[in-house]
Amino acid sequence: MATATTEVFVYKGVDKKGNKVTGEVTSPSSALAKAQLIKQGIRTNSVRKKPKPLFGSGGKKIKPMDIAIFTRQMATMMKAGVPLVQSFEIVAGGSENKTMAELIRGIKEDVASGGGFAASLRKRPKYFDDLFCNLVESGEQSGALETMLDRIATYKEKTEQLKAKIKKAMTYPIAVVVVAIVVTGILLVKVVPQFAETFSSFGADLPAFTLFVLSLSEFAQAYWYIILGAMVCSFFVLGKVKEKSPAFRRFVDRLSLKLPITGQIVYQSIIARFARTLSTTFAAGVPLIDALQSVAGATGNSLYSAAVLRVRDEVSTGTQLNAALANTNLFPAMLLQMTTIGEESGALDEMLDKVATYYEDAVDNLVDSLTSLLEPIIMSVLGILVGGLMIAMYLPIFQIGQVV
What we know:
There is one protein chain. By secondary structure, the protein is mainly alpha-helical. The chain has 15 helices and 3 strands. It has a 3-stranded antiparallel sheet.
């Protein structure tokens, strides 16, 4: 069922003591906003939509780590015995991100007006996915919301830490490659032409390497804007094609697993996410079939998402989880063995948690190793690029010096 979109309204009124008050309230309509305020003992003089800023939202973008911190703070507040609505207000008041504070206060208004916590989160799918909402709903129904929030917070923290490690592994080489391209482009467009003017007065044949670099420089000067535009457009188009085409997405995801060094990081991070998500959902009391449905979307790889859905179908027909996982030929022996032990001992969530921790640590070690390995390689590539251009420019000068 579709949920009504909410708006932020600014109100002016008088409270029970006769004091003038102003503030903001989140509601689907101004009429419902007035009704909420009446319940709080506020007689309104005016209620109107909050105007949007001319330039942007005026606040920072809400990041997944902000959601993880919010979940951890809510779990801590509720464990300390602070009522749910008051916990929202305390957490919002301590947030340095104004956009995040507004989001929390919007949730607080929904809950204070009689809506459920999970129902309020479902109105904001941009920040809270189905897995998050389902776990919160499970906590509300079981009366153990603080415990469930603690589990969700741990899951979100581990997931974001893993993403940060992957980003760390990929950012450094990409940044250096971009710098190398920029430096090479500047040399070709600005520096090499200065040498070309000098060479034109030599009246002698230039070395083949120098002629090649001069031709490359002339091409870069004439078509640099086309080259730059093609690179930007290619990046944008590839992103859109991956988003729209399942076949291309599968090709890219399969290729990412076969890349040297980084392929292992991607593979182990997928296994870590799979184990962490399944452990969290299973420990929360979610049925295994439903848990596998949530896990399929959390793997971050279309190849493994399809495999997990096949596992779900096999498990639904009575196949044991470890056997269904083995049939895919995509999961490591350690995960299969720990799953077998977990099913036999009735501690599947604990075994999967251990697997997740192991692979998260493995990713951390691989990232550190990758950084150490790439540094000398990248410096060598940069040296060859810049050094090669300089040699090509000075080679004719050296030859003239030998003749003289």
